[in-house]
Amino acid sequence: MTVSDIGSSSHPLIGAPAPDFSLRNQSGDVVSLDSFLGKKTVVLYFYPKASTPGCTTQACGIRDSRAELAALDVVVLGVSPDPEAKLQRFIDKQSLNFDLLSDEELTITKSYGCWALKKFMGKEFMGVVRTTFIIGKDGTLLHVMDKFKTKTHHDDVLGWLQGNQ
Q1: Which among 23, 44, 55, 69 is annotated as catalytic?
Q2: Other Cβ atoms within 10 Å of 85 Cβ, number
């Protein structure tokens, strides 16, 4: 592994414009950050791999919080390196009610500082670092969450939104 493989794990700065993105969702439709500007607060969360236990727990918590998030005028978008077809299977199997975006090239994942060296069971490897970004209606990055449990992630997101909007 070389230094260039590691990349940057620094996140965009709170208060700065969030990095723009355009990615395909599970249906192959292009979803862009700028389509939500002036309309919705965006919860953009990065996760390692669809249909794995932690990612399923996290996604189902968000699914079950849809009414509360909608009441706060929030749209949730999940991002992973999975291909569109795998994202669609994940949505179908778990009855997810929000878009999942495919970042197979890791372009957006890296621009948000979510691609980094990880350690698991004594092994080091490059991977997606589970992180959530809350982006205001004006496109400004409002909050970064990188320390949370997948089981309570949705409660953490809702708590922050309710206390800061």
Answers
A1: 55
A2: 11
Label residue 2 by pLDDT band (50, 70, 90): very low
114 a catalytic residue: no
The pLDDT tens digits of the residues spanning 45-82 come to 999 999 999 999 999 999 999 999 999 999 999 999 99
Q: Which of 94, 110, 95, 90 is nearest to 46 (CA)?
A: 110
Return the domain boundaries, the chain. 3-164
Fold of domain 3-164: Glutaredoxin (3.40.30)
What letter represents residue 139's amino acid? G
**How much is the average pLDDT of 74-97?**
98
Q: How far apart are CA 5 and CA 85, in angstroms?
A: 27
